[in-house]
Amino acid sequence: MGDTRAASGTGQGPGLPPVITCREPGSFARGVMAERHPALIEQVREAFPYGPQQLRALDALLHEIAHGVVEPLGHGSPDRDLWLEWGREHIGRPWFDAPFLWAESYFYRRLLDAVGYFGEGPWQGIDPFAPFKRAELSGDTVEEELRALDDLAVVTAAERASALLDASLWGNRADLGFRGPAGAGEPASGTASGLVADDRAVLWGILPPGARGTVAVIADNTGRELIPDLVLVDHLLLHGHADRVVLHVKPGPYFVSDAMTADVVDCVRRLGQAPGEAGVIGGRIREAMGAGRLDLRAHAFFCAPFPYERMPDDLRAELGSGSLTILKGDLNYRRLVGDRLWPGTTSFADLTAYFPGPVAALRTLKSDVVVGLDPGVLEGLERSGRAWRTSGTHALVQVRP
Q1: What is the pLDDT of residue 191?
Q2: Which of 14, 38, 287, 301 has the most CB within a 10 Å radius?
Q3: 198 in helix, strand or coil?
Q4: Is residue 264 domain-shared with residue 178, that is, in the same domain?
């Protein structure tokens, strides 16, 4: 995975709210560890014809989470020493006592170890989540969403920009794809905007047409989220909002659907093979990659179990040199502000002051962490009685210029 020791700043200090763990019964984090992760192990077992060694390792991981303590990586693992250092406070203790962010990251690293992803042998480099990613790209819904791009080809550039930003924001919602200006920003249910914080105007103020700087996009999920991200990147380049875009993806399989380079290739190919406007966009993206105007990065830190406050110096320097860094998705948001039980009105600008340059978060809410909300908005959400923080029915765009 590489070494990310160059991280400084622990995020610890007096007066900080507690780090989220999986201890609390009924909490979202506990549900992930106690229910989602065991279910994922079973899904991976069923998706591949693994041999006895892989099956035994998966069964052992399943038992360990429920009944044992956190065990170290196997002696042959290339990054065993690194994870021993990162987990020195957690290895040997129950999984549910570890910080949620660390436990999730380590679970996926252990899962890769169990299926032989990093080991010598026939299963080396085989993404255990690939069947789930490919199934999403091959569905009729993706084809329908790509056809919707034809409608956006005839609207103004400003209307198109607004619609594409909203499509990227809501891209991991299974029931929302590309929409024209009339539907911009609305969840598929047709209720209120669903945005608990809306800095879209600030974002476009940083990236007006003709800005021609470098924009970094830190991707989240592949498939039906990455395709809208790529279409938005194409628009930024085509209309001069950026002269160059650097797309940051994961260096290995992570959180089931997180995008890797192979997933970018699959999505670009899917766009390029589509008829109409989608195919034209796919061709432009391919040309932009060939010309270096769309560049890919896969830094090891994106699979490390830490907040962005601890990013290493080389990544900090790269992100600090651009016009704007756009972070996609829920996990990136947790890493950006810190995976803690922050009061919802905590200042987003204050928590991201460490970030090297202007930063924007585009996120559908699927976990407990949220900051930067207006007190009145927060009060109304809390009174609603709904699981608005974790259900994916709400989203936010927050920018620190």
Answers
A1: 33
A2: 301
A3: strand
A4: yes
Q: How confident is the model at residue 161 (pLDDT cuts 50, 70, 90)?
A: very high
Domain-embedded: residue 18: no
CB 332 within 8 A of CB 220: yes
Please give the distance of CA 350 from its chain centroid, rounded to a whole number. 22
Residue 264: both structure tokens together: 């970018």
Residue 50 token pair:
């693994």
Judge if 251 and 340 occupy the same domain. yes
Residue 324 domain-assigned (yes or no): yes
Instruction: Give residue 312's pLDDT.
Output: 98
Q: How far is CA 314 from each of CA 82, 95, 121, 318, rounded to the nearest angstrom?
A: 18, 32, 33, 6
For residues 160 and 211, membership in a common domain is answered with yes
Confirm whether 233 is domain-assigned.
yes
- Residue 3 belongs to a domain: no
Q: CA 31 to CA 37: how far, in whole Å?
A: 9
Residue with tokens 């620190």: 400
Residue 88 amino acid letter: R
Q: What does the DSSP 8-state code read for residue 35?
A: I
Q: Looking at the structure, do residues 72 and 151 belong to the same domain, yes or no? A: no
d(CA 216, CA 326): 6
Cα separation, 250 vs 324, whole angstroms: 20
Torsion of CA 40, 112, 124, 86, to 10 degrees: 170
- Answer whether 132's CB lies under 8 Å from 257's CB: yes
CA geometry: angle 26, 32, 38, nearest 5 deg:
120
Residue 61 φ/ψ region, left for φ over 0, alpha for ψ in the -120 to 50 degree band, beta for the rest = alpha
Q: Are 181 and 162 in contact (CB under 8 A)?
A: yes
255 sits in the region (left: phi over 0; alpha: psi -120 to 50; else beta) called left
Same domain for 61 and 141, yes or no, is no
195 in the same domain as 107 = no
Structure tokens at 59: 């069964």
* Whether this model's pTM surpasses 0.90: yes
Residue 281 confidence (pLDDT) above 90: yes
* Domain boundary, last residue among 82, 105, 128: 128
Per the structure, the complete domain to which residue 393 belongs is given by 137-400
Query: Which of these three, 72, 101, 128, is where a domain ends?
Result: 128
